[in-house]
Amino acid sequence: MFARNTTARQPFCPPNTNSGLPPMKRFALFLLLAASIPCAVLAKPARADTIISNKGSSTLHHLAQAWASAYHQAHPEVTIDVRSCGSNTGISALINNSVDLANSSRPLRPKEIAEAKRNGVQPVQHLVAYDALTIHVHPANPLKWISTPFLAEIYGERGTVNSWGQLGVMVPGCLNSRMHLVGRQSSSGTHDYFMDAVLAGKQDFKHGLDSVDVADPEEVIDLVAKNPCSIGYVGLGHESVRTKVLDVSHGNGVEIVTASMENAASNRYPLSRPLFIYTNGQPRGEVEQYLNWILSTEGQCIVQKLGYAPIRALPCREESKP
After folding, report:
1. Is residue 191 helix, strand or coil?
2. What pLDDT is attached to residue 14?
3. What is the pLDDT of residue 318?
4. What is the β-pairing status of strands 230-235 and 180-184?
5. What per-residue confidence (pLDDT) applies to 49?
6. Which of these, 53, 45, 44, 55, lies nearest to 13 by C-alpha position?
7. Which pick of 12, 24, 52, 170 has the fewest CB atoms within 10 Å?
């Protein structure tokens, strides 16, 4: 059995130049250094009175980026330092009390909560949006929908489906019909969610030369768009005209549902999921004000504009969007 391929690309996770500093305590020198690093600091003033550290889910990257930019425009004295290194990395930072806000595309596990409490950290969960795990194939693929049991057969290590021909599909440009599986690295909450929701937490992913794990959701899109044999999964906020998104069913004879904001929020779509921000205890001061703004109509309209589902139905006016 071959080792599962992984890529080292970490586009949303620059090196941490402020290691050892407590949350919300940063220096102007950091801002000057980080200004040259893509996605490190989203708003880059010469100085800021407050810097809020925000680390975690790459699924939430574009949303966290938009929130941070819009909030800084209204509150130039506050800068949000966003590092999208994966949910597990953000959760680890929360456990170690080295971040103000930890973004996660999955809930904390009991063992993580217990570890946090041993460190004197009291994790508090804040629901900030709804998402759906979307299944992408090449535009030339004639498949229109897929069931979660078949996804388990494709991605699970005990699965027996390895080619498009086994699904009765002939994909133009995929000469040997063998599937190329694109997944997410283990630091990703999306990786963990797929394992729980599709593989039922009972088996690992397939290993082999026909599979690759990537850190960046956009790289999933890129790889699937370039390879007719590929299949991959990303969050709802990473839609692309370069790939084809499959409808999903829980099984044969069960309703086939399209991934959409409405179906994610109603949990009708089989792979719907909530997105969270975690804090150590109830937030206070600038962190509380920022989180309250995220949950406000203005913050939630940004959620809707970027293709995620807001936590409640609301009429979004043009001026509420970034």
Report:
1. helix
2. 58
3. 60
4. parallel
5. 85
6. 55
7. 170
Alpha-carbon distance 22 to 79, whole Å?
A: 15
Q: Comparing 199 with 2, which gets the higher pLDDT?
A: 199
The structure's pTM equals 0.80
133-272 is classed CATH 3.40.190.10: yes
Q: How far apart are CA 191 and CA 213, in angstroms?
A: 9
Residue 113: predicted pLDDT: 98
Q: How far is Cα 235 from Cα 215, in angstroms, rounded to an integer?
A: 13
From residue 318, give the alpha-carbon distance in Å to each of 297, 307, 322: 12, 15, 9
- Closest-CA residue to 228 (of 126, 128, 133, 141): 141
Is residue 89 within 8 A of residue 56, CB to CB? The reply is yes
Q: What percent of the chain has pLDDT over 70?
A: 84
| 37-95 per-position pLDDT tens digit | 333 344 444 455 899 999 999 899 999 999 999 999 999 999 999 999 899 999 999 99
Close Cβ partners of 119 (under 8 Å, ≥ 6 residues apart):
95, 96, 97
Domain boundaries 9-131+274-320, corresponding CATH code: 3.40.190.10
Interstrand relation of 244-249 and 256-257 (parallel, antiparallel or unpaired): antiparallel
Does 232 have pLDDT greater than 90? Answer: yes
Query: What tens digit of pLDDT does each residue of 189-200 get?
Result: 899 999 999 998
Q: What is the dihedral sign for C-alpha 13, 14, 17, 23?
A: negative
Question: Where along the chain do its domains lie?
Answer: 9-131+274-320, 133-272
Q: Identical fold at 9-131+274-320 and 133-272?
A: yes
Q: How many residues does the chain have?
A: 322
